[in-house]
Amino acid sequence: MTGEIIRSERLQIRRWCEADIPRLFTMYADAEVTRFLPELAVSSLDEIRARHPHLMATSTRYGQGYGAWAAARLDSGLVVGLVLLKPLPDLSGQPSQDIEVGWHLARDSWGKGYATEMGAAALRHGFQRQGLEHISAIAHPENTASFAVMQRLGMTEVGPNTAYYEGAPGSVYRITARQWRTPSAQHMPAERSGAQRAAAPQSRSPADSAGT
């Protein structure tokens, strides 16, 4: 598969292609996956087909090295989810100066450590290739599973925030380049504990703004 952006131990993070549309539908038609992202829920393949060009164009909108990408298993090619590295939208929906990392995970891929692996790969890309000074993550205040992933990535809590996504409530975590370079911040466990598997570790952020 072409369009590779990042590679991790088990995953190829790449651009979306037409063949991914059925898998995108499986993911976003699942009410458990969109529990904290109801604006992303779909009920038909036509809705996914309409969204697909938007996902394909993320690098054009945000610049080289940024986007919302497919995360596919290296051994089988199965797309396990979406991972993103892009500007956080401000109160008016315009890109802000703050860069976020985020992830959405298909339910059949929960409990296997993929969210942490996706996030770790995106952080490495952001700090090593993009030269960022800090990266943020935001999730719904009740999404404790996502906060657990952020903590495993070495991110620290900033607190409640309504400055992004047109004022939608969220809690922000952040990590600086200096923090990321410490060995503990780059530790990536292969498996989540049973308690952490109880809910999908979806970050607050969708592929672009609240409508994508």
Write a concise synopsis of the structure shown.
The protein is an alpha+beta fold and about 210 residues long.
Category by helix and strand content:
alpha+beta
Q: Could you name the CATH class?
A: Alpha Beta
CATH superfamily: Gcn5-related N-acetyltransferase (GNAT)
- Total count of strands: 8
In helices, the fraction of residues equals 25-40%
Helix and strand element order: EEHHHEEEHEHEEH
N- to C-terminal distance: 24 Å
Q: For the largest sheet, list the strands in their spatial order.
A: 1-2-3-4-5
Major β-sheet annotation: 5 strands, antiparallel
What is the alpha-carbon Rg in Å? 15 Å
So what's the overall shape?
A: globular
How many independent structural domains?
1
Low-confidence parts lasting 5 or more residues at pLDDT below 50?
A: 189-200, 205-212
* Percent strand: 25-35%
Determine the number of helices (DSSP H or I, runs of at least 4 residues): 6
